C-alpha cells in the first residue's frame, strides 16, 4: 500500500467531531487540551500542512464528481418520468383501441342482423311476386 493509500485508509476511520465524554467540559483548558490531542492524532495519521492542499484539491475533485453524478441522476430521473408518461399514454391508447374494437364488433353484429332482415324482406317480396303471377294469369 502506497503512502497516499495508507493515509486515505487511516482517514476513513470513524471519528466524532466532539471529544469523548470524559474530555467534554466547559473549561477552555480542556477544550484546548482536546484540540492539541486532536492535532497530535492528525499528525500521527499523516496530516500535515504540506498535504493539506493535496487533500483540499482531492475534496474539490470529489465535489465536482458528485455534482456530475447528481446531474446524471437528475437526467435519468427525467428519462424515467418521461418513460412513465409514455407507458401511461400507451395504456390509454390500448384502452381506447379495445373500446373501438368493441364498438366495431357491435357495429358488425348490427350489420349482420340488418343483412338478415333485408334478406328476409327480399325473400318475402320474391314470394309475394310469385303469388301475384299466378293470379294475373
How would you portray this structure in words?
- Keywords: Coiled coil.
- Residues 110-137 form the L1 transposable element trimerization domain.
- Residues 26-36 have a biased composition (Polar residues).
- This protein is mainly α.
- The chain has a domain at 49-132.
- It contains 3 helices and no strands.
- The termini are far apart.
- The model is unreliable at 1-25 (pLDDT under 50).
Topology:
Elements: H1 3-11, H2 28-44, H3 49-136
The total of helices stands at 3
Oligomer state of the chains in this structure: single chain
For the report, how would you describe the main beta sheet? none
The percentage of residues in β strands lies in under 5%
Region (Disordered): 1-51
Domain L1 transposable element trimerization: 110-137
Protein name: L1 transposable element trimerization domain-containing protein
InterPro entries: L1_trimer
Short recap of the structure:
It is built from three helices and no strands. It is mainly α.
List keywords for this structure.
L1 transposable element trimerization domain-containing protein, 83% helix, disordered N terminus, L1_trimer, mainly alpha, 3 helices, 137 residues, coiled coil
